[in-house]
Amino acid sequence: MFFALSKLLYGLVSPLSWVIYPLLWAVFRPRHRRRGVLTALVILLLVSNDFLVSAALRWWEGTPAALPAAPPFDVAIVLTGGIVGDATGATGRPSFGPTSDRLLQPLLLVREGRVRHVLISGGSGKLFGAGLYPDEGRVAADFLQTVGVAPGRIFRETASRNTHENARFTARLLRERFPNGRYLLVTTAFHMRRAMACFRREGIDVTPYPVDFRAGPASAAAATFWPSAEALDHFDRLVREWVGYLTTHSSVARITPAPFAAVAGAAVAAALVAELVEGFAFVGTARVRVVVFGALLGFVFVGKLPLHVGLVAVGVLVVVLLRIGSRLGGAFLAHGFSEKSW
């Protein structure tokens, strides 16, 4: 249940949803149509700005990890998710996906003698139509064998559907097969913080080995300020990680996650509806509603001050972007544009 709810909740807070909300405002509030459209445009320009997104990525990803020379790690834990391309089933041979670095880097470590075994963790993370896509873990394990890794050095965990389950099910295998071993966690750099939090919550001490870095070099070239579909995709993944990271730390969600996730999702939706109804005025009753629902969301999911502040910060980011877009939209209107023509 929580798996499905988490997918739905993220759909409500994803960056493209931030663009859709003012467009809905424009549709249902015709007298504010132009401001709604301009608000959506400004938000889209902000969340697809390569300069801003790259800066956020560099901060979140951190720096590449340097491994100690010896002794070798007992297990490299490889988290699936984008390692194998969807065309694998159609072509009959491995088609590597955008996160294939998660598989290739452990292969190099095995050949260098720095890792003894590889544990591939992950089943299907699809909410619908899982059978239409290739089994990433199986394809990855077959590839490792094809390039010379002995079958006895490859293990699989096939039940997990998300990072939380990766950690929970992998922890069981590690305790059974490699108790008190040295574990290396391999995943995409922007995913590492959330993955580390999940494994720590399961009591597994892992050494991070981030791969597949997405942030480019710091640059203020004119091209970096132009809207980029790649930047929008990166920011979408960042927001997903932030939401997942904060949810992972939820003290309440560890007990009964589904009901509380439903309450929190309803709170977020109600806060956004309140802003839409008030035309993003953020005054009077609209301000009270946003504060109340934001506080409810924070306490339901967190219950700890530092993470509560973090959740509120994410909510404030959404509201600030909406407010900036609305203000700029109003500025355009004040300089000669008329909504009556719309």
What does this structure look like?
It is a single chain. By secondary structure, the chain is α/β, with parallel strands linked by helices. It has two domains: 2-60 and 224-341, no CATH class; 65-211, Rossmann fold (3-Layer(aba) Sandwich), CATH 3.40.50. It contains 13 helices and five strands. The chain has helices spanning 2-13, 15-28, 33-47, 50-61, 88-91, 101-111, 136-146, 163-177, 192-201, 229-248, 257-277, 284-301, 305-334, and strands spanning 73-79, 115-121, 154-157, 183-188, 206-211. A five-stranded parallel beta sheet has the order 3-2-1-4-5, sandwiched between helices. Helix 9 links the parallel strand 4 (183-188) and strand 5 (206-211). Helix 3 packs across helix 13 (305-334), helix 4 runs parallel beside helix 10 (229-248) and helix 8 crosses helix 9 (192-201). The longest helix is centred in the C-terminal third of the chain and has 30 residues, at 305-334. It is elongated and about 70 Å long. The model is unreliable at 251-263, 280-284 and 300-311 (pLDDT under 50).
